[in-house]
Write a structure and sequence with these properties.
This protein is of the alpha+beta class. Helix content is about 25%, strand content about 30%. The chain is built from 11 helices and 20 strands. The strands form 5 sheets. Strands 2-1-4-5-6-7 form a 6-stranded antiparallel beta sheet, with helices on one face. The longest helix is centred in the first third of the chain and has 16 residues, at about 35-50. The protein starts with a strand and ends in an 8-residue tail after the last helix.
């Protein structure tokens, strides 16, 4: 799995001149309005630029002017650095220039330092407005595209698939997935019977959790048993999940407890139980993308479940980069400083982001837990 080492952001809401190292597990903390969700949104936008859906994503966000830093007349920079085993990292920069309610790309580069050329990085992509250039491996030079080109989508999203390095970065960035708080309303998908079909993930709102868990039980028994074991540890009365058919091609899912003869159907479970079941299904999934972002996973969860959640995120971070935004000091209690990013607003109104293990916390951590240090205001991230 290719990993993103760093991200660079300029001109995106409060995130102006923000550079941060990426790690396998990043739990982002800070006061309301500091920019935690904006960080996730900026990565989602960067992912859309690689997937060729930037125009649609910006429209969903209200247009480019809605995400531009207030008072700014400059470009939005979305930048990333990706590790390449055995070689120098790939560095990608996309400058989005607002033009009324639309936009253009004032500059886009994908470069890589090569042995013997430290001062002049090798360019895989070098584009300025309508002047689009890719490095052609056949002619060994930068050439303009000779295919139909969409000016509202990035050069990276339209790179020929035989160009290996740009294609690997495109695949890594385009697979970023963002999850918000699970819908548990009366007619939420997670509460209803679902169609039997192949499913690698439980779905953004649990719309595929039934076929996902059923298929996992049949094909990847070890993963399925890990989910049931987690449920047994979190809920001592839990016995097993079952999947009774309710119509042709449709399955329901029931929760069985040792103390009760009759099973409990999904619509009868508490909000916290449903959200925890969905979270552990997601984090145990073999189909996780290269970067998985989760906004406020602690919502509705009992504090005792947060220890289980922290361990699940840590384990999943061995297979995907996990980025979590949270307000929960209870969740922070079960984390290490190397897993926590602290966001603050400076006097100029812009956001800073620092890893907690770069702060001078050793003396405080000798006496207090990490969440207590946060509550005491010794690591920032408070209003």
């Amino acid at each position: 799995m290719h990993k993103v080492n760093k991200i660079r952001l300029t001109g995106f809401r409060r995130l102006n001149e923000l550079k941060i190292e990426m790690r396998p597990l990043m739990v982002v903390i800070g006061a309301n309005g500091v920019g935690k969700t904006s960080l996730l949104d900026s990565l989602s936008l960067l992912s859309s630029s690689a997937a060729g859906t930037l125009n649609r994503k910006l429209s969903a966000m209200g247009g480019v002017m809605e995400v531009l830093t207030r008072g700014s007349s400059g470009d939005i920079l979305l930048g990333a650095e990706m590790a390449v085993p055995g070689h120098e990292p790939l560095e990608y920069d996309l400058y989005v220039e607002p033009k009324g309610q639309t936009y253009s790309f004032s500059r886009e580069t994908l470069s890589q330092t090569r042995p013997g050329y430290p001062k002049k990085p090798f360019k895989h992509i070098e584009s300025h407005y309508s002047d689009i250039r890719y490095f052609d491996i056949l002619t060994n030079r930068l050439v303009r595209p000779d295919w139909q080109y969409n000016p509202l989508e990035s050069s990276l999203s339209q790179v020929p698939k035989m160009f290996r390095e740009p294609e690997e970065l495109r695949q890594t960035l385009s697979s970023v997935t963002q999850y918000h708080v699970l819908d548990v309303s009366q007619r939420a998908p997670v509460k209803l019977p679902q169609q039997m079909k192949p499913a690698d993930l439980p779905g953004e709102n649990g719309e595929d959790i039934v076929p996902f868990l059923y298929n996992l039980r049949e094909s990847k028994r070890d993963c399925y048993e890990a989910i049931e074991d987690t449920l047994k540890a979190a809920f001592p009365g839990f016995s097993e999940l079952n999947f009774p058919p309710v119509a042709a091609g449709m399955l329901s899912m029931t929760w069985k407890e040792r103390s009760f003869k009759d099973p409990i159907y999904m619509h009868q479970l508490s909000e916290g139980t449903l959200r925890f079941l969905w979270l552990i299904s997601l984090l145990q999934s073999p189909g996780l993308s290269t970067i998985t972002m989760i906004d406020e996973p602690e919502v509705s969860l009992h504090p005792e479940l947060l220890s289980n959640l922290a361990e699940l995120m840590r384990e999943a971070a061995q297979r995907t980069q996990i980025i979590v935004a949270t307000h929960s000091d209870r969740l922070v209690r079960f984390l290490e400083p190397k897993e926590v990013v602290v966001m603050d607003i400076e006097e100029n109104g812009f956001t800073t982001a620092r890893w907690a293990d770069t702060l001078d916390l050793d003396k405080w951590l000798a006496e207090y837990s990490l969440d207590e240090v946060w509550r005491l205001g010794r690591m920032g991230g408070r209003s």
